[in-house]
Write the structure tokens for this entry.
Amino acid sequence: MRANMGRRFWQWGGLRNLRAYPEQARSFRTTTLLAIVAVFNLFDLALTHSQLPRGNFAEANLLATTLAAGPAGMALYKLLLFGAGAYVLYRYRRRWVSEAGLWVLATAYAALMVWWQLYLGAVEICVSDPAVTAPLALY
């Protein structure tokens, strides 16, 4: 009985079709990767917006700092840039180049999220360190 349920799942769900038609499988993987990159992009934007006002972070992208002054401009800049790239990658989602590019993007954004975590941990250590935050002693 239980073995039949597993077989039925593979037949009823789209998983059987994904194995039979590799173009649909690539399209599904590409769309999933695009959603993952979109979530990573939103986290990157949120972390950038949270750290810029604190003064312990500077935007390293020269184009972003000149074109996008302020939080709304930065969000619009990232939205337009990501939207244009996502449109192209989604349009060609059935091609291997699009999937390969999204794997590279997802890996790069995952590495960026690890870097953000390390950076925020170092900032919290520095901010709570009295040697860094205490005023200079007058002699």
